Amino acid sequence: MGSTNMSYLNPKTVILIGIPGLEHVQFWIGFPFFSVCLVALLGNVILIIIISLHKPMFYFLAMLSLTDMGMSISTLPTVLRIFWFDAKEIEMNTCVAQMYFIHTFSLMESAVLLAMAFDRYVAICDPLRYATILTPTLITKIGIAALLRSAFAMIPLLAQLAFFPFCYSHILSHSYCLHQDVIRLACADTKFNVIYGMVMITLLWGMDSLGIFMSYVFILHSVLKISSQEGRFKALNTCASHICAVLILYVPMIGLSVVHRFAKHSSPFIHIFMAHIYLLVPPVLNPIIYSVKTKQIHQGFLHLVFPLRISSSVM
Q: Contact at 8 Å (CB) between 264 and 20?
């Protein structure tokens, strides 16, 4: 009896869910979901292959692609296990590991977007010193700092989970593990996790978004000094891809946070839909946006897909 209680208080497994009300068609839903994830992975792999790593912006873009791939790979296995094999149980240790990678890659993507905003600021506001400011050494340091910041930020939250008893339902509300989802199952004092989580979001995502906003304030101030309208448009057009990347990360992220905190009793379908949008949209759209808006990448993609046709047209 004692061992049963200990198993109940400290479960070895938790239960993930698919799409409530659509269990009978989940197997078929798995195919378009897999296709979307495959597009995201292939798109980012192709983007990394074709980009020319001679400019700082492309270093940061490679970091963004690797981060997007990490988010996709972290969630794909559990979601497909549920859709195709109805395998809803996941070991608690695996759940914690998945949670760690999802949140780490999410925080890192925000940090990379901040670095890319700084890149746009230097390129537009101080173009003559662009190459001397954004050196490969500085870019490497920024990348390492973004990785370490994101990786270490989650450790205190997840370490606390090892000491929490879980005496409520072990059923989570998504097809993968999120901290805010797992922590609600604990029957202990979770104030540290709640407060630390709020502080971490405020300091990291808040500082990143503030840094991005301030970068564009200075960029707009510099652009307005350009005399010709064509020059202004050309300068702002170089920021279009980055602005889209910021929006497709932050809008779903804010939406998911709002749903978790203020719409707890809404339809489970809304929670699941927002969660999948949050993790699928950035990896799918970022390669498309940069391939369309960035001339060098667009040309590299055409050379990769239609090498013979491009070569014959050049000759």
A: no
